[in-house]
Design brief:
Layout: H1 7-14, E1 19-25, E2 32-38, E3 41-48, H2 56-71, E4 89-91, E5 94-100, H3 114-134, H4 156-165, E6 182-183, E7 187-188, H5 190-206, H6 212-231, E8 242-245, E9 254-257, E10 260-264, E11 271-274, H7 275-287, H8 296-310, H9 314-329, H10 333-341, H11 350-362, H12 364-372
Antiparallel strand pairs: 1-2, 2-3, 3-5, 4-5, 6-7, 8-11, 9-10
């Protein structure tokens, strides 16, 4: 097995018995996961491999958050605590965490009924509202939700400082990077995007032998440049209200069992960001069709439930739709991975993702109405 984790040391640290089987879980673009069966049970072993999210202190903060959410009844899978009282095991300079194994399956929006889409929107709204209860606002303290007394959370300062250190939330479907030139307050500068398009076009031209991916990439880059030339004056203003968000809420980070959400996983991107934008990003990922359109009927059911449970206003969602549309219009993370990193794992997402930006621009008003109607 490549990148085999140090099972003996890990299982001793968690007093989790002896390993019987350990199988890689082939999902996630940056971190590594394993389905682990031992003499004491079944577990999910996570190797926090991505340097941007592998800081043990940040991981421990995520673990505290999920435990607090679990106490409120949110479907999560908090990690086990080791014999040293810690939830993060650092061995050989690498950070690991052991979670209970959750039986379930991932579902994309095409596999959800309209009622399930309503419950999905409500779930994300509950996550945002619950994070407001259990995590501190930036630079301030929060009441202890367990007793309602208004006493300061002992970890408020630590968590707030960590929030300020978080990188901007990814605009990409999974573990990707933000658009080049993106200003966290305003979004991408079109002049930076034009320069990126030119650079990528040059890389496409140099690639040999030319293949179908190159042809599609060239077509989409030229198409996107023309769109940006027409819409460059629509760069969004500063973002709206912020709060604690999951940061990467998409189908591969939500497990279903018997048609109901069983666990929200992968809290690596937990941070303080515009909440409504996470709601829009999540909908775009869940409800994009293979041809690059959105199922607006399902988006509408999802968004109504989200607004109700999160207390978000239609104006917040309208602004968030505009900002996420602008992100997608300026976003080329899949092409950057393909041509600059030589990493092709995200290539299957490119046809739908690249078509979506074009369709969304054409159907801008209809998309906005689906989120606020």
């Amino acid at each position: 097995m490549s990148h085999a984790p140090p099972l003996g040391a890990l299982l001793r640290q968690y007093a989790a018995g002896s390993a019987l089987t350990c199988e890689p879980v082939d999902q996630g673009l940056l971190n590594r996961g394993y389905r682990l069966c031992t003499t004491r049970g079944r577990y999910f072993l996570k190797h926090h491999f991505d340097p941007e999210t592998a800081d043990p202190a940040a991981i421990a903060r995520q673990h505290r958050a999920t435990q607090r959410l679990a106490d409120l009844g949110v479907p999560v899978a908090p990690p086990l605590t080791g014999t040293d009282g810690r939830t993060v095991a650092v061995i050989g300079g690498h950070a690991y965490a052991l979670h209970p194994w959750i039986d379930g399956r991932h579902r994309h929006g095409g596999q959800l009924t309209t009622e399930q889409c309503t419950r999905l929107g409500a779930l994300l709204g509950v996550v945002h509202a619950s994070l407001e209860r259990v995590m501190p606002p930036e630079g301030r303290t929060v009441a202890n939700p367990a007793d309602g007394s208004g006493a300061a959370n002992a970890e408020s300062t630590e968590d707030a400082e960590a929030a300020n250190a978080e990188p901007p939330e990814s605009a990409a479907p999974a573990d990707a990077e933000s658009p080049e030139g993106a200003d966290p307050a305003r979004g991408a500068d079109p002049s930076d995007t034009f320069a990126l398009i030119d650079r990528l076009l040059a890389q496409v031209r140099r690639h040999r032998p030319t293949d179908a991916f190159d042809e599609l990439a060239r077509h989409r880059l030229l198409e996107r440049r023309a769109l940006l030339e027409r819409h460059a004056d629509r760069r969004p203003p500063q973002g709206g209200s912020v709060g604690w968000v999951h940061g990467d809420f998409h189908p591969f980070n939500l497990l279903y069992r018997d048609g109901e959400p069983a666990a929200i996983v992968d809290w690596d991107r937990l941070g303080v960001q515009p909440r409504a934008e996470e709601a829009v990003r999540a909908a775009v990922i869940f409800f994009v069709r293979p041809v690059g359109t959105l199922d607006l009927t399902k988006v509408r059911a999802y968004a109504r439930a989200y607004r109700r449970t999160a207390g978000a206003t239609p104006s917040e969602l309208t602004a968030a739709v505009h900002r996420v549309w602008w992100e997608r219009l300026n976003d080329f993370w899949i092409l950057r991975w393909h041509y600059e990193r030589g990493d092709t794992r995200a290539d299957p997402q490119f046809p739908a993702a690249s078509a979506l930006a074009v369709w969304w621009t054409r159907e801008y008003e209809s998309v906005c109405e689906a989120f606020v109607g």
